[in-house]
Amino acid sequence: METFLGLDYPTWWFLVVGGLFSGYAILDGFDFGAGAWHMFFRQNKSREIALKAIDPTWHGNEVWLVIGGGTLFAGFPVFYGTLLSAMYTPFILFLLFIIFRGISIKFRNMEEMPWWRKMWDWSYSISSIMLAVLLGVVVGNVLNGMPLDENYEYIGGGFFEFLNPFSILVGITSLALFMMHGGIYLLLKTEGKLYDRLQDLLKKGIIFFIVSYLITTVYTLLYVTHLSEVFRENQALFVVPLLVFLSIANVPRLVSKKKYGWAFIFTSLTIALLFVLVAFELFPRLLLSSGIEANSITIYNAAASTKTLKIMMGFVAVGGPLVLLYSFFVYRTFWGKVKVDAESY
Amino acid sequence: MDVEILSRVQFAFTIAFHYIYPPLSIGIGLLMVVFESLYIRTKNKQYEVLAKFWTKIFAITFGIGVVTGIVMEFEFGTNWATYSRYVGDIFGSALAAEGIFAFALESSALGVLLFGWNRVKPWVHLVATLGVFLGSMFSAVWIVVANSWQQTPTGYHIVGEGMQARAEIVDFWAMVFNPSSVDRLTHVWLGAFLAGSFLILSVHAYYILKGRYVEISKKAFKITLVVATISSLAQLFTGHSSAEGVAVNQPAKLAAFEGHFDAEAPGDLYLMGWVDKENQKVTGLKIPGGLSFMLHQDFETPVTGLNAFPEEDRPSQVNAVFQFYHLMVAIGMFLIALSLFAMWQWKRGKLFEKKWLLWTFVFTAILPQLANQFGWFAAEMGRQPWVVYGLLRTSDALSKSVQANQVLFSLILFFIVYSILLLLFIYLMNKGIKNGPYDEENYDEGSLNKAIAGVVLNDINK
């Protein structure tokens, strides 16, 4: 198989798609987190500021989902088809909550009636919570594996099959992670009363995350044993979970010193490292067949042709820096604490 | 109901709903760029007011367009898994390119467009507006390329067999510039310009009729009328060129457009009609041999008809395809006539004197929307029974693991949610239009500055 800098193209593409989805989780993750906290703010004014903190940038963050979806479709079409059709219900719900999240932000301030604003506040917050949970649930199902036939087609049950204890645990953990992450982001963007309130909330958020992360880890080691195989076989790789642990441990330390900028960097790093952990647990598989193991989807049997992957690498090489440049410009334009002033459109 | 019908209905419903918004965004985006450029060039505050006003309307259409667009991207996987595996190399690449090269640009620039009026220099803001507009144009490029490949596949080869057969790219540029890409892209762009410009014409015609914002509305109306006239005329050429392409590349579809059954006979051109599929007869008003003339400049040249294809390779809904196609053409002709007539009145200096003309413009906003929808229904239903023309049948493209009750459940949810979206859209558009470009009470002839300050103050108080 053709290689580029010592790695074959499906592996490169595994890294690209993984990188894009971890980028999405880091960026839209703080939007979800901010949304999950939304109803904890009691005053209309606070909610308005909290929304303004993410308003100019959440659109750009959602781009990562669109690009991630496109590259997954193009790079691993077999996986894309199987995963989305097998996870039909959670993906449809995810899409509907993406709609509600988006329009809630857009429409909330278009009317002044308190009931109108309250309605969109609830819709925004519930959507954000559900999006965070559903992302985790899908990841949980991928990690868990599912029954596949020899054409890599899903052969399990329909409606509620996606709800199993492990995926629910991963879902709750991802909600907790995003709440911690989003809480810190809001602290960076706010001041005054809301800032004080957030400091209190964040402490609870950190405890919520650490507890749910520990439970999920223990559950994984006891019941989803295929995930830790790679670490048993190659002890050097133990450094990955160790780094995750250190990165997580650093967050409460930085938060207690009120170094929120650094804390945000470490929650971001934690998300990225969790993706690395998942990548090691899976590689080179993408979706484990829980019945006949030979039916598992791997990066090799799911990949598009090498030619397509090469073309797409070109896209990413040219487009990636452009995307980063736009993002840099937008974040720089809206840098700093939110002021409620004449700059709303 | 079976999974195939439900999935097709769901896809048609979600894509048709989605397609209300992107054309508006592209069309309004174009005029936002024009108004803002004029403001920067002339320093006339009226253009700034116009640019800001239409940006507000744009924000509503863009927002709904994005969220309903994300649904489309993932629906290929959820409902059409076999299709996704089959075309992932090609269709997926185009979608990924759309995300990287177009959507990223428009979404990032959007933040500055909406919230950056006072944060960046005027020319930087114009660059952002341009970025959003160009991004939406590029989006259309990749989406139309992907769809055109389904109509006229080139630059690929098939590997694997049965359930594991897949189309892979052999020649990327041949895939991108497949025979129908350019015609269809220009047709889609112009359709979008028409949707946006006729909405703007409608709103400003309404203001003029109601005696509100008259001065700036007249300015906006004239500028937009130029765009609408050029677009509607140009649309005639892209449409004709597109139809010629269909005749060569998808003869069964062209035959369905005109209800032409005879395998080898001169084709008639219908102005309107009704297709009786059972008896292979069309009743209506026709130019005998007109289709042959349009395609070959000769009334006698035979055109391949539906009977040249086996029953299972023809579109089944011939009458529907026929009607959608003819309604689209009729609306296109009406738009040309209306805009040329208005241009003529303008030349005579009587553009704003005829109330009935302005009222016509008020109601015409809906027509380009309908033409866009009808055109796509004709194109997509005319391609049936294929999802990728000649390669993959729609009935084979489904997700094998999805059950009917799941699709029924999602279809109902989409129906409810999209109904709410539509109501919100209408409500907010109506409100935006009622509120108008600026606060009339603070309006003071000659100093729009003050008026703008009034709008800004109002925003703060909210």
Automatic annotation (TrEMBL), chain A:
Pfam families found in the cross-reference section: Cyt_bd_oxida_II
Transmembrane segment boundaries: 12-41, 62-80, 86-103, 124-143, 163-186, 206-224, 236-255, 262-280, 311-331
Superkingdom of the organism of origin: Bacteria
Compartments where found: Cell membrane
Annotated InterPro entries: Cyt-d_oxidase_su2
UniProt membrane topology term: Multi-pass membrane protein
Keywords: Cell membrane, Electron transport, Heme, Iron, Membrane, Metal-binding, Transmembrane, Transmembrane helix, Transport
Single GO biological process annotation from the record: aerobic electron transport chain
GO molecular function, one term: electron transfer activity
GO CC aspect terms: cytochrome complex; plasma membrane
NCBIfam families: cydB
Family recorded in the similarity comment: Belongs to the cytochrome ubiquinol oxidase subunit 2 family.
Name the UniProt record assigns to this protein: Cytochrome D oxidase subunit I
UniProtKB/TrEMBL annotation, chain B:
Superkingdom of origin organism: Bacteria
UniProt-listed Pfam families: Cyt_bd_oxida_I
One GO molecular-function entry: electron transfer activity
Keyword Heme annotated: yes
Protein topology in the membrane: Multi-pass membrane protein
Chief site of localization: membrane
UniProtKB keywords: Cell inner membrane, Cell membrane, Electron transport, Heme, Iron, Membrane, Metal-binding, Transmembrane, Transmembrane helix, Transport
Keyword Transport among record annotations: yes
GO biological process, one term: aerobic electron transport chain
InterPro entries reported for this sequence: Cyt-d_ubiquinol_oxidase_su_1
Spans traversing the lipid bilayer: 20-41, 53-74, 94-116, 123-145, 188-208, 324-344, 356-379, 407-428
Coiled coil (UniProt feature): none
Localization, UniProt: Cell inner membrane
GO cellular component: cytochrome complex; plasma membrane
Similarity-based family: Belongs to the cytochrome ubiquinol oxidase subunit 1 family.
Protein name stated in the entry: Cytochrome D ubiquinol oxidase subunit I
Organism field: Rhodonellum psychrophilum GCM71 = DSM 17998
